[in-house]
Specification:
95 residues
């Protein structure tokens, strides 16, 4: 598990996402953890083409809940509900 530092102030989940994602992936690289094939589970606030592209560039499988505000939720992107449910359990434990 890897995470970035909390970002102060009132921002959406994608605020400064490139910097935050680089922090997370740098932590994995520093720990010699290969990113290819890892799963990143995130809530609908992270559902964006740009963020999914960042994940793809690092060969990370983006398991992101589809945001209904982005239009069609019947898109072809990967989503595993059971894996997502485990993410929520981990998030509560870290809180």
């Amino acid at each position: 598990m890897a995470m970035s530092q909390p970002v102060a102030d009132n921002h959406n989940n994608l605020y400064d996402i490139k910097v935050q994602f680089d922090v997370i992936t740098a932590t994995l690289e520093k720990a010699d953890t290969p990113m290819e094939g890892l799963f990143l589970s995130a809530d609908a606030g992270f559902d964006s083409k740009v963020f999914r592209k960042y994940c793809g560039n690092k060969q990370i499988n983006a398991n992101i809940y589809l945001n209904k505000h982005n239009g069609n939720v019947e898109r072809d992107e990967y989503f595993d509900q059971e894996l997502y449910d485990h993410r929520y359990t981990m998030e509560r434990a870290n809180a």
